[in-house]
Each structure stands twice: as structure tokens, then as C-alpha cells.
Amino acid sequence: MASQPITGPVSDSGSGVFPSLVYVQGNDQRSIALDHTPFTVGRKVDKDLVIADPRVSRDHALILSDNGEFYVVDQSSKHGTFVNGEKVQRQKLQRNDRLEFGVREVAYVIFHPVQAGSNTARDFLSQISGIHISTETTDLEKLTLFLEAARKLNTMGVLDEILVTLTDATLKLTRAERGYIFLKDEEGKLRLAAGRNYKGEPLLDDKTISHSILDEALSANSEFLITDTSQSLDLAGRQSIVAYDLRTVICIPLLKPQVQTTRDAEVPLPSPATGEVMGALYVDSRFASRDISQVSNDILRAIAREAASLIENARLVQAEEAARRYQQELSIAASMQQGLMAVTIPEVPFATLRGRNLSCKEIGGDFFDAVNTEDGLAVVLADVSGKGVSAALLASTLQGMIYSQLTARTPLPEIVAAVNRFFTKKHLGEKYATVIIARVRRDGELEYVNCGHIPPLLVCNHEVIRPSHGNLPVGLLADATYESDRCSLHPGDRLVLVTDGVTEAENAKGDFYDNERLEAVAAKGSSLEDIFASVSAFCGGTPLGDDCTVVELVYTG
Questions:
Q1: Dihedral of CA 218/224/228/231: which sign?
Q2: How does pLDDT run across 41-75, given as a tens digit for each residue?
Q3: pLDDT reading at 243 higher than 70
Q4: I need a surface site. Which of 31, 183, 195, 406 has the fewest CB within 10 A?
Q5: What is the Cα–Cα distance from 260 to 278, expressed in whole angstroms?
Q6: How far apart are CA 508 and CA 517, in angstroms?
Q7: What is the distance, to the nearest Å, from the Cα of residue 294 to the centroid of all Cα atoms in its chain?
Q8: Nearest to 457 by CA among 518, 529, 379
Q9: HEC profile for 235-251?
Q10: Containing H/E element for 301?
């Protein structure tokens, strides 16, 4: 059956945009645009959604569009298709429906989840907050209600709302007065993440809870469940319980979900007592609660386990969103850097110039530039220490400084001395740069200043000369002095400049490309492309560890 684009209104969206699917497997989660139907699901690799699990049939199910409504249709699969836990053959889909294909609880799809911040999301949260639990509601019904509400809320990926919902739902189940969720931060310190009372009012501090029980529960990875402190607890050292007349105290550690690989699949399993503690669920009251005693320990543990899973998933969603935003910003920065560092090669009658850069990251610290003045054609190659954004910022600044001073016809040693003063006086955190500036005149005189950079290659009649003259990198010593050196070029002579990303490119064995291979390729009269091809062949697919830049100047006379 050929794929058809979706036309007509989109069910329950009101905006005409494509609905989406969120596919969740263990701790991994990704969004899929439902921009055509039929949308195929199965184990075969040609499906729109491939679930590589033996319990999923090769041709398992379809998602179809019919007059703007969406349906899931089972294709006679062996283990069935489920919507919100019920096996179906054909089922109309509503927002936030949970779809499972053969394999249960391990991998599932959320259809067109409500997005955080939308009116629908706020309405849905209001529905959850208004859940009514009567005295006739059984423990299993309570737990099912809790888990379903939490799962649906989790599709929004809004951690704060999930925490509030978990706290409210726990209070409804236990009929306690106060509920708190504590989470560990990146430094491992416990912080109050959410607090609510039975009226649904926020609690902003935890001064009146039993911190001794909280600490013991976390250190021992075990739960405390006390329904009447006057009968079941030695109050020695429990100042908060005595001072605030706490009769019921529940504290259950939240353990990070563990994933165990089985023969069939990766299955999230209940965290063992030795699991990593990510926080705690704490509930207390000033009266002995019969209702709490009616809720079994197993159900409370299940709540804590599900809460830990939901919180971890929400954190992963937040991290994914932050990473996505970072990548967007990085892409913008890369585009700006490329624009700033775009090199317009000057055309001169006595020389030809070419250059190429390969960054190991989106943005890097290498750059080259070319400036033609009455003093000759100047080429600049620099490598700022480090990688990424900080190196790119300094590279852009460095390029601007050198360009402006070259156009002002400042002597080469004075240019690098000014750059060195800038680097050392700005306290840039051990940042430095290797720089080489070479300028060739019409008569073939070459003047260059090398600041800690790889020595240039002078190729004369297939003989490679490596001038040894050099200075310190810029940015190391404030009182460093710089000098230039000179030599004469003849027609056909080539000047090749590279950054250390070329000579230090590694293969799978960890060997460097090194200077000998570079000199051997250059001696053959190879072009810039030949050098890059040689480096690529040597690496054999091993990713670059540093930015690679090659500049080639040929003096034509």
C-alpha cells in the first residue's frame, strides 16, 4: 500500500499541523511526525516505525487517517495491538492515547501528546488535579488511576507539573495531610522539589518534617511506613515528630530505574534495594491514619517506583530539549563564524593561493585568512587552544585583530606582539594560540613570523625545506618578543601551511599521521586535495580529534 500524504483537517489539533507520535523505549524517547498514512509499524526494517523485538510481528499494525480522524489497525499480529492497555483490532485514536505493539511495558507510543504550555495541557492538568477518590475505591483502582494520570502527564515532559501531580495523587491515595518529593541535584545534595498539603496548597519549605527519618530512609535505601508514632516508634532523637505532633510518617526512597538486558529485549525492572537513590517521597500527618494502613506496602512501593521512572523520563526529556536548543544555538554560531571567517582569496599576478578547513566540531578554533596590500600578499593561519565555542570566539577576535593590522600595513612582528598583549592582559584562562603569518612580495621575497606553529613547508623542485625559525605562541608570556625571518621564492616554489590537526590525525591504532607523511605527500607536488585525501586514507574512518587546516601558496613569478 503506497503512502499518502495527510489531507484535510487533523483530528483534535485545531491548527492543521501534523500530529506526532512519541516513541518510548526504556529511557530513550523520540518524536515522529505523522505526516503520511498509512503509517506502518512492525519488526521489518522497511516499516515507518521499526520495533526490533521478537514479540512484535513483521507486519504488526497500521495508523490510518480517515476524514481527519486517526485509527490504529492491527494486522493480525501474533501478540496483539493495545490502546491504553486494551487489546484492539481497530480503534479511533485520541490525544495522549498509549499504543503498545505486542511487547507490553517495554516500548510504547503516545499518540499526538499534549504540548507543555498549551490550553489543552492546562485543562488536562486540571482534570488530574480534580480526580475524585471515594471511600469505595479499591487499592487497585486507586493505583491504576494514579499511574494512568501520571503516564499521561509525563508525555508533556514538564517535570514540575509531574512532581505536583505525583504529590497530589499520593495524598489522595493515603489521605495524609502533607506530601513532599525530594530530589538530588547534580552535586548529590537533596533539595525540595515539590510540596503540597491536602488542600492542594503548595508547601515551600520542609522545616517541620522529620529529617531524621528522611536521612535514614535515604542512607539505608529502605522505606519507613509508620501509621501511629505513639505506638510504633522510639521517639528518642525525633525532635520534629515530638515538636509537631506527627503521628503518621511515610518515607520511601526513589530509586533510579534499572535496565536489565534479557534474551528478548531490554526490560526496565524494579530497582533493587541497592539501586541509585535519586530522591524520596515523604508523607506525614498529625493523626494516626487508618486510610494509610489500608493501602498496602506493595502499592506504596509501586507508586514510588513509578514516580522514580516518570521523574527520570521527564529529566531525560528536559535534557534532550536542552541539547536540542544548544544544537540550534551552536548551528547559528557556526553559521555566523563561517560568515565572519569566509575567506575571499585575492587575485594577484605573481601567486595563487588556496586553503581549506575541516572542523572536528560544529565550530572550531582554526582559521586562515588572506590580505593583499602594497606590501604583498599575506596569508594567516592560526590555531587557538581548545575546541568548541570558547576557541571559536577567540579565533574570531584574533582574525579581526590581525586583519585590521595587516590592512594598516603594520610590521609582522608588531602584529603578533599586539595579539600577545591582548591575550595576556585579558586573563583568558590559559588560552593561547599558535600563529603563522607569511607575506610574499611580487619579487618573491617571503617574510614570515612563526609563533609556536608547525614549521611551514617550502617545496622547491620536489625538495621539502622546513625553516626552523620560530617564536613563542601568543598568550603565554606577557613580555615575549617576536621576530620575523625572510627567504626568497622562485617561480614554481610552493609554501604549504598546516595546523597540528593534520600531523596529529590518528588512525585506529593510535598512530599519528606525523610530519614525515606530510612531507612525502608535499614532495610529490601534490595539491591541497591530495593532502586531505592522504590524511583521510591514513585515518581510515577514525574521527578527527582536532581541526584540520591546509593552506597552499604557489609563487608564479
A1: negative
A2: 999 988 999 988 888 999 999 999 888 789 999 99
A3: no
A4: 31
A5: 19
A6: 17
A7: 44
A8: 518
A9: CCCCHHHHHCCCCEEEE
A10: helix 297-340
